[in-house]
Each structure stands twice: as C-alpha cells, then as structure tokens.
Design brief:
Number of domains: 2
CATH architecture of the largest domain: Orthogonal Bundle
Structural class: mainly alpha
Oligomer: single chain
Number of helices: 13
CATH superfamily of the largest domain: Hypothetical protein, domain 2
Helix content: 55-70%
Strand content: under 5%
Radius of gyration: 18 Å
Order of helices and strands: HHHHHHHHHHHHH
Shape: elongated
Number of strands: 0
CATH topology of the largest domain: Endonuclease III, domain 1
C-alpha cells in the first residue's frame, strides 16, 4: 500500500474523495488474510449478507463459538447439522449457503490454494458458481480477504448511500456510479473505503 501515491492520485482525479481520504486509517480496514483464513473469511461474508455490521458481528461471534477449537474448515461445517448452525442466529438460507461453500471446497470447485493468483474477474466468476455467493459477497472477499486495490461494488447499499451524500446524486444509476468511480482506478478499493468511512463520520 503506497499511501502517498494513492493520495496523490485522488488529489488529481477526485477532490471530494481526497478531502475525506486524508482522515482515513486504511490499516484498520485493509489487512489481507493468510490462505488458511480464506474459508472462514468467506463464511463471515456470507453471514454478513444484508445485515448491519452490529448484527453481523453478533451472529459471527456465536458462529465461531460452535467450534470447540475455533477451527472452521469445510470439513467441520460438513459435520455440523443445519440445526446446529442455525443456533448461531442466521437464516436457514445462510446455513445452506455455508454448507454449499463447504461442499464446493471439498469437491475442489473452489480453489483457495491458488485463488490469490486469479484476476479479480476470475475470482468473482469462481465464487459466484456457489449457490448463495453473489457478486457482492465475492467483491467483499476481494477487498477484505485478498486485499485487492481496484474493486468497487456497485451493489453495495452503503456505497450508494455515501455517493448520494457526498456527490448530491439521488438514486445514482449504474452509469452515474461508473462515471464517478472510473477515474479512481487503479485504486477504487480505497475510494470505496473512503465512502464507507464517510458514513461512519456522519
């Protein structure tokens, strides 16, 4: 992460983002995970779908407590019953999504051992083959697990709200979002984090 280069880039292409960016602690947001953490990280993203950070954190905590040694693997997910997983407080659909992911990894349909070498597009393509993982979940995996620097999730409601707030654009269309965020490349992830931070600063 070359913060000087990132700051200079946004200073040139987007003064709105640049003003907020100077106050953001990117280290708090971006810590690429080890390969051994990829599976549990994606489980967390599935659990967090369409939930607030607070609600998601509570369910994830209870989910982790289901594993006596704290080891969440495809095999341990496979062994747990759906009823047991449901005790964490997640919806039945997410229980099944976790089971789908575990089975996909065991069957080698998802390749965590080499996924870090894939392009962003290929990561999304591979993960979204698993029922229950859509583009948003795959994009969050790119950002928060793989630490990819050029990701903007057009389906993220928080990002859309922040764009509305900072750019005074009501219900921005995909074309409007593209027009605003395209100049951020190759650092769209940092622009995304600035937008999320702006919501916390309200």
């Amino acid at each position: 992460m070359d913060l000087r280069r990132i700051r200079n880039h946004f200073k040139l292409v987007d003064p709105i983002i640049y003003e907020v960016l100077r106050k953001v602690d990117f280290g708090k947001w971006l810590t690429p995970r080890k390969e051994s953490e990829y599976f549990v990280s994606l489980c967390r993203e599935i659990i967090g779908q369409q939930l607030s950070d607070k609600a998601s954190a509570k369910i994830i905590e209870r989910f982790m407590d289901l594993f006596s040694n704290g080891k969440v693997t495809p095999e341990t997910i496979e062994r747990l019953t759906e009823e047991k997983l449901r005790q964490a407080g997640m919806a039945w659909s997410k229980v099944r999504y976790l089971k789908n992911l575990a089975r996909a990894v065991i069957d080698r349909q998802v390749h965590f051992n080499i996924i870090k070498n894939y392009s962003d597009e290929r990561v999304v393509e591979e993960l979204t083959r698993v029922k229950g993982i859509g583009p948003w979940t795959a994009e969050m995996f790119l950002i928060f697990t793989l630490g990819r620097e050029d990701v903007f999730s057009f389906g993220d409601l928080g990002l859309r709200r922040a764009i509305e707030k900072l750019y005074q654009v009501k219900n921005p269309s995909a074309d409007q979002l593209e027009k605003i965020t395209a100049p951020w490349s190759p650092y769209r992830t940092y622009g995304s984090i600035v937008l999320w931070q702006s919501l916390e600063d309200k």
